[in-house]
Specification:
The complex is a heterodimer of chains A (359) and B (226).
Chain A lengths: L1 E9 L4 E9 L1 E6 L6 H9 L6 E6 L2 E5 L4 E2 L7 E4 L11 H6 L7 H14 L15 H13 L5 E5 L7 H17 L3 E6 L2 H7 L2 E6 L2 E7 H6 L4 H6 L4 E7 L5 E3 L4 E3 L11 E4 L5 E3 L11 E11 L3 E8 L11 E6 H7 L6 E4 L6 E3 L2
Chain B lengths: L3 H29 L4 H15 L2 H12 L4 H8 L8 H26 L2 H9 L4 H30 L2 H7 L9 H10 L3 H29 L10
The chains are: A alpha+beta (359), B mainly alpha (226).
């Protein structure tokens, strides 16, 4: 089971250019809106035609610009879950599910529909029209409908975007169960990095139509290969760097000199640390030692229900014109311990949590 | 009392509506997937009967379908004579009603969310099935409205019909033409009576439309979108 892709397509303000080999299991496609994520899916499904390239699904050529092969969407056997589900409003749940297996004998069809109803917990909804369903139910029907013809690959375009927050975790679990059973190439587009991490086994990061990162999600989140990937995976603190002869590194935008545990292959241009990795220590005499410990002051803070984001300026920073502040994220419980402490506070940028990026 | 104008009018309107329905819908589907100069030109031709005076349309039809006209000559060789016979009333009503059907059907088809059509395609449906089972039912309220407009237009057709079908009692004399000749012949009572019949048919049509839209919602069987 594999999907080989080489897609080139000129879009309004950039070019989609993606070469990939996707094996079974879910691949989360992460990218800012307008990065070409949906277009990639639509090219695979046959709803859009790439300018150049080749799409091969299990040795079956779906598209080949050189051989002039363009298999129409209806013959691709690629299931697609649309962002707003696109359930046929004039057909009941049962009729929606049966639409893709229309060619089969009615007994076999009924059996398949019943199996899908069972598998996706749609019992009792069979005769309802889509508008009478809740968002989560619509999502399940759309998923069941896409799975009905037993597609050889499955594409999901922002499957959770249309749902209320409280429904998402439930639907996410259901999706995970479906992915566990459906072991075929699966692409899941999202702009939410947490969703991408939870649902994808592998991760593809798209930036302006190009592959910015592709591989194991843990590795990409731990050591983003580029500053853009770092930003897309939620890293708030990224600074330009200058290498020093002794091996230490100056973080120019933060205004400090740090030691980094990571071995450096290419000369780095950026350094990053995640907001929740910034540690607050009692002072320079603390148990954490003095390595990468810096005095700082609070510029601003922003509260969420359980956490607080602190915008910090290091005392060592000279150019106050630069607006790049360090963002630290802490649980409120912890914040209560030091929120009234006098400045300067001390933060530690642990060498093993800092990562360098060549571009 | 001679009732033939009523039957002729109804037969003409119903037949013309059927023709318009098929032709207008086909033209709308054809137009949906195209753009460009040639299409715009054809579009213009399709819409001409809407803007031209009916007498002009009738005269053009007379030239086309007349004894020596390009289409008339062809039909004559097949042993058919259309001009100044009942089929001419159908041709005139169809041509005049066509733009209304074409425009409303096109608008209705363009209103259908393309996601539905694409979803159907990814589920393996042929283009014909996508049209018949998804596009047509979802566009149906608009298409039906176009059909009713076409019927009303066909029923009221006068100028083009008079030019190309003449006024032959019992054969081409429709209600509007009967009213015209009654007024011309000074038979005010007869003219009033036919006016009453026309008002009656129109009211029935409007009542049907009213109950249909109220009873079934804007989307027919399934109701509205989300």
């Amino acid at each position: 089971m594999a999907l080989d892709l080489h897609i080139e397509k000129v879009l309004a303000d950039f070019e989609l250019d993606v070469t990939l080999r996707i094996s079974e299991g879910p691949l989360a496609v992460l990218g800012a809106s307008g990065a070409g994520k949906s277009m990639l899916l639509r090219c695979i499904a046959g709803l859009e035609k790439p300018d150049r390239g080749r799409i091969v699904l299990n040795d079956r050529i779906l598209f080949d610009s050189e051989k002039r092969i363009v298999v129409p969407a209806r013959e691709r056997r690629v299931g697609m879950l649309f962002q707003n589900y696109a359930l046929f409003p004039h057909r009941t749940v049962r009729e929606n599910l049966a639409f893709g297996i229309d060619g089969e004998a009615s007994a076999a069809r009924d059996q398949k529909v019943a199996a899908l109803v069972d598998r996706l917990h749609l019992g009792g909804l069979e005769s309802r029209y889509p508008r009478k369903l809740s968002g989560g139910e619509q999502q399940r029907v759309a998923l069941a409908r896409a799975l009905a013809p037993e597609p050889e690959a499955l594409l999901l375009d922002e499957p959770l975007a249309a749902l209320d927050t409280h429904l998402r975790s439930q639907v996410e679990l259901e999706l995970q169960n479906t992915f566990a059973e459906y072991r075929r190439p699966t692409l899941l587009v999202t702009h939410n990095m947490e969703e991408a991490y939870r649902l994808g086994e592998q991760l593809l990061v798209l930036a302006r139509g190009k592959v910015a990162a592709f591989g194991a999600k843990e590795e990409i989140f731990r050591r983003p290969p580029t500053a853009e990937v770092a930003r897309l995976t939620g890293c708030k603190n990224i600074s330009r760097v200058r290498m020093n002869p002794g091996g230490s590194i100056d973080a120019l935008d933060w205004g400090c000199r740090v030691n980094v545990a990571q071995a450096i292959a290419k000369p780095p241009r950026y350094i990053g640390i995640r907001a929740h990795h910034i540690d607050f220590v009692g002072g320079t005499d603390g148990s954490a030692g003095t390595e990468n410990v810096f005095p700082c002051r609070l510029s601003q803070s922003a509260e969420t229900p359980f956490r607080v984001t602190l915008f910090l300026t290091l005392d060592s920073r000279k150019d106050s014109a630069n607006e790049e502040l360090l963002q630290a994220e802490v649980f409120k419980e912890k914040w209560q311990h030091f929120q009234h402490a006098p400045f300067p506070w001390h933060i530690r940028l642990a060498p093993e949590l800092l990562f360098l990026m060549p571009e | 009392m001679e009732w033939s104008p009523l039957w002729i009018s109804l037969a003409t309107s119903v037949t013309a509506t059927i023709c318009t329905f098929v032709l207008g819908l086909a033209a709308a589907v054809w137009r949906e997937r195209r753009s460009g100069l040639a299409t715009a030109l054809v579009d213009g031709i399709f819409l001409l009967p809407l803007v031209l005076p009916p007498t002009v349309v009738g005269f053009i039809l007379l030239l086309l379908f007349g004894r020596n006209g390009p289409l008339g000559g062809l039909l004559r060789r097949l042993g058919m004579m259309i001009v100044f016979a009942w089929p001419a009333t159908v041709v005139a009503a169809t041509v005049v009603a066509f733009p209304l059907m074409y425009l409303t059907a096109r608008a209705a088809l363009e209103q259908v969310d393309p996601n539905f059509l694409q979803a159907a395609r990814t589920l393996g449906a042929s283009e014909w099935r996508v049209f018949r089972e998804i596009a047509l039912p979802l566009a149906w309220p608009g298409i039906l409205a176009g059909t009713i407009l076409s019927f009303a237009r066909a029923l009221g057709e006068f100028g083009a019909t008079l030019m190309v079908a003449g006024n032959i009692p019992g054969r081409t004399e429709t209600i509007p033409i009967a009213i015209y000749s009654a007024v011309e012949g000074g038979e005010t009572g007869r003219a009033l009576m036919w006016c009453g019949v026309d008002v009656g048919i129109s009211l029935v049509l409007l009542a049907g439309l009213y109950f249909w839209t109220r009873g079934r919602g804007p989307l027919g069987r399934g109701g509205g979108h989300r």
